[in-house]
């Protein structure tokens, strides 16, 4: 892209079928293996390798095992803090969710362009984040109704609501509840996309200004480049935070389903 | 925005592969590997807490043994001190007795000796009186020519002495 005359900051999100599978179909639906698919698979494989490295089950853990155990411990503590003892059964799901998103975010940030590969951040697609949000929301609904039956609707009436207010509060709470999957999915998608667009725009400033001449490079290129360095660090932080927020909000919502109010 | 422009063309592929790959992640990693990792952590925590409990128990036992030993030691010491005190008291009593016996023996000897001395003195005095009386009678006879018996001279001698 750097060699193109005009840099399109949105081009990096384009989904391209790979390995000539663009006509692959299942029950009439297109299931082409795309760059998105490949990066999901890479994230899954890297995640598997990461966890596998921590499965030595040594009494005195090495660094790698320590790293894996600190991630499982993080999720375990988060669920215990938000849900309580009942929360431990969600560790596999929340761990998978958190690590899959985290690895997707971080791997998508890798500067693989310098060796000719095109990194793709699948979490910058609301199709993906939306599905993950719907899965989380679906688990909340299933657990909530399985555990509390129709009593689950009392979630929409907070304690101490005056009786005349109940219908209005119920509707308001219901709307805020139904918005959850959208906010959950959109937050991650927007955060990832915004960061990548920002980096792309800044890099286009650097390239464009250096093509325009030395004085433009000094005025616009160097500050943009310095800003890029900072934004890169920020993006790594955002990659972690957004994965954590997704997992944290899922566990908070699961707490509603598990314990009501 | 490719996310929207390509939505119709790619949503099915995205959804299918996400579900497949995330499903694999969940079942293989989340369900298969994470519990083992957590078991290891739990096992280690358990072992650490067990070891700590064992150490605590061992320390308590050592403390108890030390306390028992101290009690025993104190009892022994008290016993020993009692023995020493008893021996001391006995020794003192026997010393006192011996001293008293010796004292009475000495007193008796002293009294006897004093009595003997008094006798000796009395007899010596009597002898001296006798001798003095005889000498006085002799002296009187020679000087005055008067015959004075020793018995008559005695009161005078006694007076002079």
Automatic annotation (TrEMBL), chain A:
Keywords: ATP synthesis, Cell membrane, CF(0), Hydrogen ion transport, Ion transport, Membrane, Transmembrane, Transmembrane helix, Transport. HAMAP family: ATP_synth_a_bact. CDD domains: ATP-synt_Fo_a_6 (cd00310). Pfam families: ATP-synt_A. The chain crosses the membrane at residues 27-53, 90-114, 126-145, 152-172, 184-207, 219-245. Its main location: membrane. Belongs to the ATPase A chain family. It is a multi-pass membrane protein. It comes from the Bacteria. This is ATP synthase subunit a. Key component of the proton channel; it plays a direct role in the translocation of protons across the membrane. GO terms for cellular component: plasma membrane; proton-transporting ATP synthase complex. It is found in: Cell membrane; Membrane. Gene3D superfamilies: ATP synthase, F0 complex, subunit A.
UniProtKB/TrEMBL annotation, chain B:
It is a single-pass membrane protein. Keywords: ATP synthesis, Cell membrane, CF(0), Coiled coil, Hydrogen ion transport, Ion transport, Membrane, Transmembrane, Transmembrane helix, Transport. The keyword Phosphoprotein does not apply. It is found in: Cell membrane; Endomembrane system. The chain crosses the membrane at residues 15-34. GO terms for cellular component: endomembrane system; plasma membrane; proton-transporting ATP synthase complex. Residues 70-130 form a coiled coil. InterPro entries: ATP_synth_b/b'su_bac/chlpt, ATP_synthase_B_chain. One of its GO terms (molecular function) is proton-transporting ATPase activity, rotational mechanism. Its main location: membrane. It holds the Pfam family ATP-synt_B. F(1)F(0) ATP synthase produces ATP from ADP in the presence of a proton or sodium gradient. F-type ATPases consist of two structural domains, F(1) containing the extramembraneous catalytic core and F(0) containing the membrane proton channel, linked together by a central stalk and a peripheral stalk. During catalysis, ATP synthesis in the catalytic domain of F(1) is coupled via a rotary mechanism of the central stalk subunits to proton translocation. F-type ATPases have 2 components, F(1) - the catalytic core - and F(0) - the membrane proton channel. F(1) has five subunits: alpha(3), beta(3), gamma(1), delta(1), epsilon(1). F(0) has three main subunits: a(1), b(2) and c(10-14). The alpha and beta chains form an alternating ring which encloses part of the gamma chain. F(1) is attached to F(0) by a central stalk formed by the gamma and epsilon chains, while a peripheral stalk is formed by the delta and b chains. Belongs to the ATPase B chain family. This is ATP synthase subunit b.
């Amino acid at each position: 892209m750097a060699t193109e005359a005009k840099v399109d900051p949105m081009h990096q999100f384009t989904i391209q079928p790979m390995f000539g599978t663009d006509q692959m179909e299942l029950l009439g639906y297109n299931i082409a293996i795309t760059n998105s698919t490949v990066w999901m698979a890479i994230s899954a494989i890297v995640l598997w390798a990461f966890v596998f490295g921590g499965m030595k089950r040594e009494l005195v853990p090495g660094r790698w095992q320590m790293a894996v155990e600190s991630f499982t411990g993080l999720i375990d503590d988060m669920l215990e803090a938000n849900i309580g003892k009942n929360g431990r059964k969600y560790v596999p799901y929340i761990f998978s969710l958190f690590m899959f998103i985290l690895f997707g975010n971080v791997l998508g940030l890798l500067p693989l362009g310098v060796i000719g590969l095109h990194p793709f951040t699948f979490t910058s697609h609301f199709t993906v984040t939306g599905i993950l949000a719907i899965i989380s929301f679906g688990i909340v609904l299933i657990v909530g109704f399985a555990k509390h039956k129709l009593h689950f609707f009392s979630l929409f009436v907070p304690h101490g609501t005056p009786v005349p207010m109940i219908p209005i509060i119920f509707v308001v709470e219901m709307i805020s509840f139904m918005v959850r999957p959208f906010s959950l999915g959109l937050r991650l998608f927007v955060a990832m996309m915004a960061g990548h667009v920002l980096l792309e725009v800044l890099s286009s400033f650097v390239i464009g200004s250096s093509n325009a001449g030395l004085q433009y490079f000094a005025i616009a290129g160097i500050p943009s480049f310095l800003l890029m360095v900072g934004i890169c660090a920020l993006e790594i932080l955002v990659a972690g935070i957004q994965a954590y927020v997704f997992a944290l909000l899922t566990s908070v919502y699961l707490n509603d389903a598990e314990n009501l109010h | 925005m490719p996310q929207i422009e390509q939505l119709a063309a790619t949503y099915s592929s995205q959804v299918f592969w996400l579900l497949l790959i995330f499903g694999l992640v969940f079942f293989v990693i989340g369900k298969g590997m994470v519990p083992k990792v957590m078991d290891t952590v739990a096992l280690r925590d358990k072992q650490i807490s067990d070891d700590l409990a064992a150490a605590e128990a061992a320390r308590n036992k050592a403390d108890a043994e030390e306390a028992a030993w101290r009690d025993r030691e104190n009892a022994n010491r008290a016993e020993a001190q009692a023995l020493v005190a008893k021996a001391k008291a006995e020794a003192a009593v026997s010393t006192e007795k011996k001293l008293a016996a010796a004292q009475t023996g000495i007193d008796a000897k002293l009294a006897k000796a004093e009595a003997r001395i008094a006798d000796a003195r009395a007899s010596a005095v009597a002898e001296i009186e006798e001798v003095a009386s005889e000498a006085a009678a002799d002296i009187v006879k020679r000087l005055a020519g008067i015959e004075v018996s020793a018995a008559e001279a005695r009161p005078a001698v006694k007076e002079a002495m």
